[in-house]
Amino acid sequence: MNLREYFSTPDSKYTAKQTLWWLWQAWKGNRLQASINAALGLMGVGASLASVWAVQHAIDVASGVVEGSIYWAVALMGGLVLVEFALSIAGIWVRNILGIRAQNRMQQRMLDRILRSEWHGKESHHSGDVLNRLEIDVNNVVGFLTETIPNALSVLAMFLGAFFYLFTMDKLLACIIIAIIPVFVLVSKIYVRKMRQLTRQVRDSDSKVQSVLQETIQNRMLIKTLEGDSAMVDKLESTQSELRHRVVQRTAFSVFSNLILNFGFALGYLIAFLWSAIRLSEKTLTFGGMTAFLQLVNKIQGPARNLTKLVPAFVSVFTAAERLMELEENPLEEQGEPIRVKAPCGVRFTDVSYAYDEKEGKVIDHLSFDFRPGSCTAILGETGSGKTTLVRMILALLRPQEGKVEIYNAKESKTLSPRMRCNFVYVPQGNTLMSGTIRDNLRLGKLNASEERMREALHKSCADFVFDLPEGLDTVCTEAGGGLSEGQAQRIAIARALLRNRAILLFDEATSALDPDTERQLLKNILASHDRTIIFITHRPAVVDYCDQTLRVEKRREM
After folding, report:
1. Rounded distance, CA 506 to CA 376, Å?
2. How many other C-beta atoms lie within 10 A of the C-beta of residue 451?
3. Secondary structure of 74-121 as H, E, C letters
4. What is the C-alpha to C-alpha distance for residues 54 and 99, in angstroms, rounded to an integer?
5. Which end of the chain is more exposed for a tag (fewer CB within 10 A), N or C?
6. Which contacts of 278-283 are long-range, i.e. CB under 8 A and separated by 24 or more positions?
7. Do the Cβ atoms of 187 and 260 come closer than 8 Å?
8. Extended strands (E) in 333-447
9. How many Cβ atoms are within 10 Å of 150's Cβ, its own excluded?
10. Contact of 362 with 315, CB cutoff 8 Å
């Protein structure tokens, strides 16, 4: 049987080989937990099979078939029960303690991969969908690698051990019981094809629900002002209805499949019971032997049941792996040590063009401009003229499709790359504070900044109001700077940027929420020294008056 055909579905983006290779790479960091779980599982198999023999021995001693002390026989049974308890408790500790660590590691790896990948300006996945994948799909993959696979080894060991034990007692029945396996393989092949498709549909619908929830909470104020409460609840109901429909489809298929399998198992157990009862009546099997007989049949069927559960587990992990692989499709940015260019330095555009989409045309068309070292430049232009794209190219988030962008000083000139982002400070438009204290937000600019340096940066950004707050730097902000005004949050964001202290400062409408007097004072403070290159994207006349030069970008007009 070809593995690719076994696991493939018509809408799968990746081959089974690609998905298995990705899972193998993901498993490398989880081998310790997987090995411990496998060892515990195999010891559990040994204890379980030993218990079968102990029960048979105790019954045979009690019925006088074999000689021995019934007290020692029961004591042996009790000892094995305690061993199984101990192994069970150890498994719980490994699963919970090492399991959360494994999940955390994988989430960190995935987040690091996303943050270091190239950024194209148009995200292919909703942020709610990404969070859903980083939480649920990561959990599915880690659980499969650290628990399902090791458990599969112990299940297989139990199956083989019970079979050979039963084979020593009754060769014919053991062979009849084992003959059902090819039927399972045939049924599971059909099951996998359909179940993968249904599981993918459920996971995608679940992501849509989380996306609606996140977006609604994120924009709660906007929704309230537009009186869109009912509309958003209706939208959530619509996506949830789709999810429920998908879950019903998958559940119905799963129940039907399990019904068929369980009927087969029940029939097998009845055959084994009848066979052992006949042998008991014919005196070819002791009562203890019959008990062991039925226990062994159960221990063969139990692992067989668990092996059939591996099929939906494989379906689930293949779906989860594919969804995580999609998050890694964007290529990585250039990696390596940051490249610092000695200040003062500038940025030079030479015949630069860029288009997000061929149909939309060029956002920037053959632009040449020099942001000279130590200069202060205002970038002006109407909405859609390409100012944001210009900023992204200065920060090496986008690469020009034509021409080149360089960072240079009096001695050298280098083509801009992500490794040179260390030369920039960027203050984006809007409220960009994170939840936490004001001190935590400032430390994002410089992790080891002293309180004195924080005070200097806050004073320079006209944010002295922080020291009048009851908790000062330890004042807690909620999400997006909640608890502060837009102007206050903007000044703290500027202070955070000043703490970073790099050669080129880039402000994107960073004073839009400030009153004229505060804005003028802030600009005087920032421009007091002429050792850094400053770029403002702005519509504010007061900002333009403080600049040495102006770059006006024009919106492309349709012909």
Report:
1. 10
2. 11
3. HHHHHHHHHHHHHHHHHHHHHHHHHHHHHHHHHHHHHHHHHHCECCCC
4. 34
5. C
6. 279/170
7. yes
8. 346-354, 364-371, 376-380, 402-408, 413-415, 424-427, 436-437
9. 22
10. no
Amino acid at 334: E
Residue 550 CA to chain centroid, in angstroms? 43
In the predicted structure, residue 187 carries a pLDDT above the cut 80: no
Average pLDDT over every residue of 57-81: 83
pLDDT of residue 304: 63
pLDDT over threshold 50, residue 100: yes
pTM of the model: 0.67
Please work out, in degrees rounded to the nearest 5, the angle formed at the alpha carbon of residue 215 by the alpha carbons of 211 and 220: 150
CB neighbours (10 Å) of residue 2? 8
Instruction: State the average pLDDT for the chain.
Output: 79
- Give Rg (Cα) of the chain: 34
- For residue 477, the cross-strand partners are 436
Distance CA 162, CA 173 (A): 12
E-strand stretches of 395-526: 402-408, 413-415, 424-427, 436-437, 476-477, 504-508
341-396 pLDDT, tens digit each: 888 899 999 999 888 777 777 888 888 999 999 888 888 887 777 888 888 889 88
Structure tokens at 37: 């779980």
The three state secondary structure string of 232-273 is HHHHHHHHHHHHHHHHHHHHHHHHHHHHHHHHHHHHHHHHHH
Q: Which of 322, 282, 251 is nearest to 16 (CA)?
A: 322
Q: What is the pLDDT of residue 92?
A: 80
The span from the first CA to the last CA of the chain, in angstroms, equals: 59
d(CA 389, CA 426): 14
> What single DSSP character describes residue 343?
S
d(CA 92, CA 176): 36
Share of the chain above pLDDT 70, in %: 82
Tokens, residue 408: 């240079």
8 Å CB contact between 474 and 439: yes
Q: Report how far Cα 229 is from the mean position of its chain's Cα atoms.
A: 30
Rounded distance between C-alpha atoms, residue 57 and residue 67, angstroms? 10
| CA atoms of 235 and 212, how far apart (whole Å) | 8
* Residue pair 161/49 in contact by the 8 Å Cβ criterion: yes
The pLDDT-based confidence of 280 (bands split at 50, 70, 90) is confident
Q: What are phi and psi of 505, to 5 degrees?
A: -105, 130
Asked if 263 and 284 count as a contact pair (C-beta separation under 8 A), the reply is no
Q: How far apart are the C-alpha atoms of 302 and 163, rounded to whole Å?
A: 12
